[in-house]
Write a sequence for this structure.
């Protein structure tokens, strides 16, 4: 598998109409969301303002549980904001739509469909004919280097391949916006790097707006035009950072002084919040317990 | 490694290969014959078949010994027919069409009762899983009716339906209805919500999500329900036939007892066993055809 397989070749005619590049502006103003649960209300997100300009690659980074998935689910149309407004190209979001493709934190390929049928799904929902959508899916899978696996069922694919198929599936319908929720979180470092390259290549080729949630600082810097840093729950935007690194980004850039400076800055922002998030979960006793020096058998005695 | 050790006239192997190959015994492992390879690949299945055949043979042997020596240790085998007796009565039964008519009538009752149950329970279960209100309406009634064994329905069924035939089909239907319904419901409850969201994000309407996600995701559980339901259908059918039937393999078995034709009892029982086995095989086969993704 090479990243180059994904690069557009000059003569490869796209199998589907590329989306209009002028659209895909996401605007979130004063967004807040409270979950109503059996044991009271949970404030997941308190107040978030953010924008994604058409064709921009924006990342959100923040400690675990700060409401990143919640925000993305609201953008996808699965959750109604408790406060504030969420609009795409000026129109409020009323429900899920193929305009906004989403890649989930968990693998979400349909186990009962082959790789090609998974990719065809969105086109089928659009009412495209069998032969036509099969041709379109084949072309896309070819670009993604997945042709040898088109007739496999997902349970025979590796994690990286599953996410690749997921991305191809989301892009097949030509969405204006792609929402990704820690898509590479479960992958090993090497596969992750390749997937990042594939994603940037696709994004540059299709010129769609991307909102990308991640835990990983390097990933956020390497991929993004801008990064939003969120606070611990209930989540808020703590900082907004522009990444001035030139494109195309190359793996060697992660060693540049510019990259490392950005990384240091982000790191200190995140550290504070992660500690805050952990402090909320661990009781004072729990923190003390971590400090106790247990040696060997003492653990058994202590229990 | 193997090629290095083979006495081939081709190029000599590289030194490293020769060094590692040298201590290996001179006996080269030849490529196994195709038949041998096939045996090796299906080793597990072949063993299962052999062990299964042996266990059936042991059962028949034990039966043979217990009946020919008329063992009488609290359990009395004096009147139990031996395998040879049953074979003999099978030969007589197979010579006329009466026995096959009984079998055919039982199969028809199963088919009607079971198919009716599946045709109602599967859609109902899917709908109940999707629409909470429907589930809240239907579920309490099914919970009350479910523990009533199908046999207990026999008198009621005779009152309810104009003919005996219909009441027996009704009882068969009841027997398989609840396992199918409950398993379908359970399958619906365990559908991965991420898959539903993924479908909605790709532009699927409510109806399309139902067809493309809920149904296939529930299919394995539906088939579990169908298999269990088929088993209960046979149980209920035989009970109903013994009590109120005039035809059918259950009636045949009970009649054999009344007429003191003991070997026919065993023949009827064996026929029931074979029919039950065949019908659950059939369901499994259909399941495998409908769910190629889970075939392994
Ligand atoms: N359905 C729900 N009902 C109640 N509370 C929820 C629900 N989903 C999430 N939460 C809570 O809301 C908060 C934010 O959750 P969310 O999944 O958005 O966080 P996240 O930033 O995506 O975390 P992670 O990085 O671990 O994926 C968490 O405290 C979580 O416990
Ligand atoms: Mg999350």
């Amino acid at each position: 598998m090479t990243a180059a397989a994904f690069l557009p070749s000059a003569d490869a005619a796209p199998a589907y109409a590329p989306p209009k590049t002028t659209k895909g502006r996401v605007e979130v103003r004063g967004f807040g969301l409270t979950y109503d649960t059996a044991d009271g209300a949970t404030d997941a997100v308190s107040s978030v303002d953010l924008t994604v300009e058409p064709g921009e690659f924006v990342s959100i980074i923040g400690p675990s549980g700060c409401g990143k998935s919640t925000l993305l689910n609201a953008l996808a149309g699965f959750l109604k904001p408790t406060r504030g407004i969420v609009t795409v190209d000026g129109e409020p979001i009323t429900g899920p739509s193929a305009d906004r493709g989403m890649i989930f934190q968990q693998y979400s390929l349909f186990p009962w469909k082959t790789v090609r049928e998974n990719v065809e799904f969105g086109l089928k929902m659009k009412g495209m004919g069998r032969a036509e959508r099969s041709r379109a899916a084949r072309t896309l899978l070819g670009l993604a280097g997945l042709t040898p696996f088109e007739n496999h069922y997902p349970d025979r694919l590796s994690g990286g391949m599953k996410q690749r198929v997921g991305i191809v599936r989301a892009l097949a319908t030509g969405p204006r916006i792609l929402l990704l929720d820690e898509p590479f979180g479960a992958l090993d470092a090497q596969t992750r790097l390749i997937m990042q390259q594939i994603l940037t290549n696709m994004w540059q080729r299709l010129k769609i707006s991307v909102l990308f949630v991640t835990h990983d600082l390097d990933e956020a810097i390497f991929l993004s035009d801008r990064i939003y840093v969120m606070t611990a729950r209930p989540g808020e935007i703590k900082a907004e950072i522009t990444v001035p690194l030139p494109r195309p980004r190359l793996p060697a850039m992660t060693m540049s002084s510019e990259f490392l400076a950005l990384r240091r800055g982000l790191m200190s922002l995140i550290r504070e919040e992660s500690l805050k998030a952990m402090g909320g979960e661990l009781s004072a006793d729990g923190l003390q317990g971590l400090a106790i020096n247990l040696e060997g058998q003492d653990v058994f005695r202590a229990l | 490694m193997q090629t290095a050790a083979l006495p081939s006239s081709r190029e000599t192997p590289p030194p490293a290969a020769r060094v590692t190959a040298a201590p290996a015994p001179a006996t080269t492992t030849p490529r196994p014959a195709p038949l041998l390879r096939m045996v090796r690949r299906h080793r597990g299945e072949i063993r299962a078949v052999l062990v299964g055949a042996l266990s059936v043979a042991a059962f028949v042997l034990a039966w043979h010994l217990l009946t020919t020596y008329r063992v009488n240790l609290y359990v009395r085998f004096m009147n139990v027919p031996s395998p040879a007796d049953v074979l003999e009565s099978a030969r007589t039964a197979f010579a006329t069409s009466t026995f096959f008519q009984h079998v055919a009538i039982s199969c028809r009752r199963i088919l009607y009762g079971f198919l009716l149950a599946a045709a109602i329970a599967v859609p109902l279960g899917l709908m109940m899983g999707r629409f909470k209100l429907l589930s809240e309406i239907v579920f309490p009634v099914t919970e009350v009716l479910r523990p009533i064994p199908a046999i207990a329905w026999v008198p009621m069924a005779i009152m309810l339906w104009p003919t005996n035939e219909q009441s027996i089909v009704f009882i068969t239907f009841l027997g398989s209805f609840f396992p199918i319904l409950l398993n379908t419901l359970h399958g619906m409850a365990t559908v991965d919500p991420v898959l539903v969201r993924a479908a909605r994000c790709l532009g699927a309407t409510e109806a399309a999500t139902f067809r493309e996600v809920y149904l296939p995701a529930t299919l394995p559980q539906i088939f579990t329900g169908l298999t269990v339901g088929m088993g209960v259908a046979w149980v209920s059918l035989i009970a109903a036939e013994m009590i109120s039937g005039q035809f059918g393999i259950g009636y045949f078995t009970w009649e054999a007892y009344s007429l003191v034709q003991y070997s026919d009892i065993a023949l009827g029982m064996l026929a029931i066993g074979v029919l039950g086995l065949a019908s659950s095989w059939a369901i499994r086969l259909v399941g495998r055809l409908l769910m190629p993704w889970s075939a392994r």
Observations:
- Chain A is about 35% helix and 20% strand.
- The first strand of chain A starts at residue 26 and ends at 37.
- Confidence is low (pLDDT under 50) at residues 1-21, 291-303 of chain A.
